[in-house]
Amino acid sequence: MSVLDRVLLAGAVEECEPVTPSMRRVRISGTGLRDLDWVPGQHVRLKVGDLLSPQVWLSGFRDVLRTYSIWHYDRGGILDLCVLDHPGAGPGALWARGAVPGTKVLLTRPDGRLVVRRESPYHLFAGDETALAAFDAMLRAVPAGEPVYGAVTVPAADHRLPLARLADLTWVYGDGGASEALVGAVRELSLPAGPGTAYVAGEARACQAVLRHLVRERGWPRAAVRVKAFWAPGKRGMD
């Protein structure tokens, strides 16, 4: 057993099913997953590579772990992840394709700072389909009475997850010009005069475009914008 195996939590795949044309829900359960400290929006790092594989050694161990937001969590030891499947799939997507009930799983404890800020005047969500699992968990955590605004880009309507507070979000469909499409949709939102808290996640360039818009055009303080880049074109280790 490797050092990595000793520090990771153990579980097993309970269910694995498509929830959109490009997304698989993977339910993982185990006694070691009970009573975790989890805040909606946080992620785990999932072991998807074999440490004994020559390919893993050649890649400098980049292909051992992949990061996934927790979609749902039950303190009895059950958590759901959403794994994106896409052309030219990387280690994470390939792992999910082969996952079946009983597949052994090792993963880290929940971590991350993309979480809901308490007592914000309002909340703004902006991202693409890779942010949907995190956004849904966070939307369910927004206190009742606090307004929500948002813009999300997905390839088509059937790529949407059934998010909480769905009516509060603007959906943009299509694969081309993701950065322009997302920042354009955010620019068109009728937001209150003062800043709230923004949660921006997905493709790195689109995230930076939304950040620049909020800070330069709307005058938001940088501290009011929480950014998490989940992927970038051509960059490994972000699937």
TrEMBL record:
Annotated FAD-binding FR-type domain residues: 6-117
Record Gene3D superfamilies: Nucleotide-binding domain of ferredoxin-NADP reductase (FNR) module, Translation factors
Top-rank lineage group of the source organism: Bacteria
Extent of the signal sequence: none
PROSITE patterns: FAD_FR
Protein name (record): Siderophore-interacting protein
Organism: Sphaerisporangium aureirubrum
